[in-house]
Amino acid sequence: MHSALVQRISNRSDGPLDVTWLAAGTPRLPLGRIRLRWESASRTGWDVTAHLGLTTAEVLLGSWPAAPDDWPRLVRPTLYEVTGLCAALAFATDALDLSNSLAGV
Q1: Is the pLDDT of residue 1 over 60?
Q2: What is the pLDDT of residue 82?
Q3: Mean pLDDT score of the chain, rounded to an integer?
Q4: What does the pLDDT look like over 50-86, one tens digit per residue?
Q5: Residue of 6, 29, 37, 71 with fewest CB within 10 Å of its CB?
Q6: How far apart (Å, rounded) are the C-alpha atoms in residues 79 and 62?
């Protein structure tokens, strides 16, 4: 397995991250989805990176080098906020599309 796709982020500060494993050949992320990758750091802990799927590309969302063993707790606030922002933007885009459709634009 290459990385994991974030499926759900608990709204509790100590809550879990639900993920699905992704194979190495997995295509680009869909809009608003987050891919996590972690590997052992050279000395201690974990090197963790998160990528965010945008309309035309994937971008680096965050990097946590040499994160401690409880790294999900460390990255969860960032993932939670970004997921909420993406959901809000998707809702606003849908509302704008509907408004334009009803106005005949």
Answers
A1: no
A2: 92
A3: 89
A4: 999 988 899 999 999 999 998 988 999 999 999 989 8
A5: 37
A6: 9
Helix (H) or strand (E) holding 7: strand 3-9
CB 62 within 8 A of CB 47: no
Collect contacts of 34-39 with beta carbons under 8 A, ≥24 apart.
Answer: 34/5, 34/6, 34/61, 34/79, 34/82, 34/83, 35/3, 35/4, 35/5, 35/6, 36/3, 36/4, 36/5, 36/6, 36/75, 36/79, 37/2, 37/3, 37/4, 38/67, 38/71
17-45 mean pLDDT = 88
Q: Bin 66: left if φ > 0, else alpha if -120 < ψ < 50, else beta.
A: left
Q: Measured between alpha carbons, how far is 25 from 23 in angstroms, rounded to an integer? A: 6
Q: What are the tokens at 105? A: 């634009």
pTM (two decimals): 0.81
- CB-based contact 41:20 (threshold 8 Å): no
